[in-house]
Amino acid sequence: MTDWAQVRADGFAVPADRPLDELVDELSLMLRSPDPQVRDGQAYSTLATWIGNGALSAEQLRALGDEMVTRFADPEIQARTFAPLILDSIVSQGVFEPSWVPPFERWYVAEDDLRGFDPKLGWLHAVAHGSDLLAALARVKAVEPVQMLRLGIGRLLTPTEYVLRDFEDDRLGFALAVALTRPDLAEEDAIGWLDPAVRAVATVSTTGIRPEVSNTLRTLRVVYLLVDHGVRLGDEGITQVPHRDQVKAKLVELFRTATPYYF
Predict the structure, then answer these.
(1) Contact between residue 93 and residue 136 where contact means Cβ atoms under 8 Å apart
(2) Exposure letters 29-68 (e unless 16+ CB within 10 A, then b)
(3) CB-based burial of residue 70 (10 Å sphere; 0-12 exposed, 13-18 middle, 19+ buried)?
(4) What 3 state SS string does 10-53 have?
(5) What is the average pLDDT score of the chain?
(6) Measuring CA to CA, which residue among 38, 123, 25 is closest to residue 81?
(7) Calpha distance 11→1 (Å, rounded)
(8) What is the DSSP string of 51-109?
(9) Is 117 in contact with 164 (CB distance < 8 Å)?
(10) Widest CA span of the chain, in angstroms?
(11) Residue 74 has pLDDT above 90, yes or no
């Protein structure tokens, strides 16, 4: 086994005594570990750094991406939730395969273990980690932006007993705002994805506000803020949403339905 603590101490320099493919395979296996120090502190931090600094070739990134996609069906929650983080790093480096999108979409909406932090497993964060990949995919020209918007609202409206915490709503709100910055997004699509949320908010259960409705409202307030002020897209600076006024009006309509005392 590689001394990954030493690799980290050496500034994540790639060890020269073993083939890179073997090192990546070892790290990939460690990403399934229930030990957060192994999975997060060693495997993820090393892989994300190597991907970001160009240590892996495009061929190696595609192979790693294909492997991460299989993790969406893994029986272990930590394996499922760290797969989108690695895919986010890969896609952000400009390597993308259309075949990665459907498995991600199926997992993101269906995942029912939404724990943020677990005392034994550490950070799991299915919603937040998935939103990071959603944001990366929303910037890929081959991916329709409305597809990501519908995925995000589908995740929010899926019935759950879990109320988002630890900035999960902020991260998903940011991802949705990123999709809204796409210049090729039609006006009808820029507001139409919100229709299911309007219907859900208008149908209040007699037993109280459902967690998914609360999650949706809080996340969409983040979207409103970003649409109003612009979205920071890395080194590109602040990018304005093309259909800013129309999206804001639709969001106000939704908020007014839920909280008429605001207006």
Answers:
(1) no
(2) ebbbbeebebbbebbbbbbbbbbeeebbeeebbbbbbebb
(3) exposed
(4) CCCCCCCCCCHHHHHHHHHHHCCCCCHHHHHHHHHHHHHHHHHC
(5) 96
(6) 123
(7) 19
(8) HHTT-S-HHHHHHHHHHHHHHTT-SSHHHHHHHHHHHHHHHHTT---GGGHHHHHHHHH
(9) no
(10) 66
(11) yes
Q: What's the whole-model pTM score?
A: 0.96
| Higher per-residue pLDDT: 236 or 49 | 49
- Kindly give, in sequence order, each residue whose CB lies less than 8 Å from that of residue 229, ignoring residues fewer than 6 positions away: 238
Question: In this predicted model, what pLDDT tens digit does every residue of 198-242 receive, in sequence order?
Answer: 999 988 766 788 999 999 999 999 999 999 999 999 888 999 999
Task: Please say whether the dihedral angle defined by the alpha carbons of residues 241, 245, 249 and 250, taken in this order, is positive or negative.
Answer: negative
Separate counts of helices (H) and strands (E) for the chain:
14, 4
Q: What is the mean pLDDT of residues 43-53?
A: 98
d(Cα 42, Cα 237) in Å, to the nearest integer?
Answer: 31
Q: Which residue has the tokens 């192994």?
A: 38
First to last CA, the chain: 61
CA gap 116, 95 in Å, rounded: 28
Percent of the chain predicted with pLDDT > 70 = 99
- What does the pLDDT look like over 161-194, one tens digit per residue? 999 999 999 999 999 999 999 999 999 999 999 9
**Residues whose CB is less than 8 angstroms from the CB of residue 48 and which lie 6 or more positions away in sequence, other chains included:** 85, 86, 89
Task: Evaluate whether 113 touches 126 at the Cβ level (below 8 Å).
Answer: yes
**pLDDT exceeds cutoff 80 at 262:** no
Flag whether pLDDT at 1 surpasses 80.
no
